[in-house]
Amino acid sequence: MAHPKMRFAAVYEAGDAWLADCSAHPDLVRLVWGIEDLAPIPTGKAWLAVEGRLVDTMYALDRIRSEHRGPVLADPTCDKAWWLVPVTAAADLADVRHLTVRPTEWVLHCPPTGWSLEGRFWLNRPDGSGRLTDPAVLAAAFGPGGYRPSAEATS
Fold this sequence. Notes:
Layout: H1 4-11, H2 13-21, H3 26-34, E1 39-42, E2 48-53, H4 54-63, E3 72-75, E4 80-85, H5 90-93, E5 99-101, E6 107-110, E7 121-124, H6 135-142, H7 151-154
Antiparallel strand pairs: 1-6, 2-4, 2-5, 3-4, 3-7
């Protein structure tokens, strides 16, 4: 019988593969995860990181339907969360006061998708598809009224 941690990790293999491939050094990312440490993944190759308070993020997650959410990393110890958005999203989110768009080459220290490390965990895990959160949807979710899908989208 396989070790329980190995079976658990296999469930998240696609997300881990995608996340590691977002780095210029995917083998290094896997090596770091293998020693149970956070992997430094610079922004800009596949996505940008948008930082917000964890409490605000929890409210925003409730406002965005699951099929519109990309990966979201959380760190309760510092009350922060990072949304992964397209590399073209900086201008769309520049004026959202509760969010900070991290620049290209800013390093996000990530656990693998299947478990938490050093208090960090994925609120919405990478699934391997490359899906990211649309900046317009994210901006609306953090706005005063919050994001609400149109009537056509819910029918």
